[in-house]
Write a structure and sequence with these properties.
285 residues, alpha+beta, Muramoyl-pentapeptide Carboxypeptidase, domain 2, 2 domains, two-stranded antiparallel ribbon, globular
Length: 285
């Protein structure tokens, strides 16, 4: 009878023990020898050609204008695919040249083509124009396409040496004074013309924007790797007043990247590549 009297207490104790075990943390969740560390998911790469996860990629957009950062942020995979194409082209096509990043006085391209030898295919304002080989090949194709639509693209200025740019800039200073000259002409070493990939077309005047050739260039030049360097309303960014006649060859991949993600603004694209090219190259597996 005594033993039977203890069964309810013993049974209740067992129930309590089982319940406590069921509610306790899983074995291994503590800090004992049998603990199993929680498995963290592998960060997902945005593009297989780059070791970038979302946090790393976001750092690339710091300092960009809001509309450009938004366009890139909406399609980071597509953006990096375009960047990959640019990295596969020659880096000297997208070198940043402006008032803060001048070229050395001795810089001179080694593959300049005398455009006089192509006078049967190009319209030239005068003898003596020269342009780098790749830019020349693109110019030939672009001029032929324009001509097929009844548009004439006249080359009015191309490669300029450091010494020649000294003469050009000094003439503007004499005419306008240094402060105004700096808004319309590059000081020696700061001119894209020294790269051998920049071309001035037509009248070299504001009226070019409203002429058939100017309208055609604005709409189509990027298809051939050319880009408007100094667009209207962006003097604070580029450092120069609007020049609808001045186009620079940056390569087809870079021109496509500029059009799709940089709002058609060359300076922002070139600044991005200048700042991040090393990181982008190092991030490729």
């Amino acid at each position: 009878m005594v033993c039977r009297g203890r069964w309810p207490l013993a049974l209740g104790t067992i129930v309590v023990l089982i319940t406590a075990a069921a509610c306790s943390p899983e074995r291994g969740a503590g800090h004992g020898a049998d603990a199993v560390p929680a498995t963290q998911p592998e960060p997902k790469l945005i593009h297989p050609a780059f070791n970038f996860v979302e946090e790393d990629f976001a750092a690339l957009l710091d300092g960009m204008p809001q509309q450009i950062a938004a366009a890139i942020g909406e399609d980071p995979h597509g953006f990096l695919a375009r960047v990959l194409d640019v990295l596969d082209e020659s880096s000297d096509l997208t070198v940043l040249v402006d008032k803060e990043h001048p070229l050395a006085e001795e810089y001179r391209p080694t593959d300049l083509v005398d455009l006089d030898t192509l006078s049967d295919e190009l319209v030239l304002s005068r003898p003596g124009h020269r342009l780098r080989r790749e830019a020349t090949e693109a110019l030939l194709e672009m001029s032929a396409s324009a001509a097929s639509e009844g548009i004439t693209l006249m080359v009015s200025s191309a490669y300029r040496s450091y010494e020649y740019q000294q003469t050009v800039y000094a003439r503007w200073v004499d005419e306008l004074g240094a402060a105004t000259a700096d808004r319309v002409s590059a000081q020696p070493g700061m001119s894209q013309h020294q790269l051998g990939t920049a071309v001035d077309f037509g009248c070299i005047c504001r009226a070019f924007a409203d002429q058939p050739a100017g309208r055609w260039m604005l709409a189509n030049s990027h298809r051939y790797g050319y880009s408007l360097s100094y667009p209207e309303g962006h003097e604070e960014v580029t450092g120069y007043l609007y020049e609808p006649w001045h186009f620079r060859y940056i390569g087809r991949a870079a021109a496509a990247l500029e059009q799709e993600y940089f709002d058609g603004l060359q300076h922002y694209l070139l600044t991005f590549l200048h700042t991040h090219r090393g990181l982008l190259e190092a991030s490729r597996p």
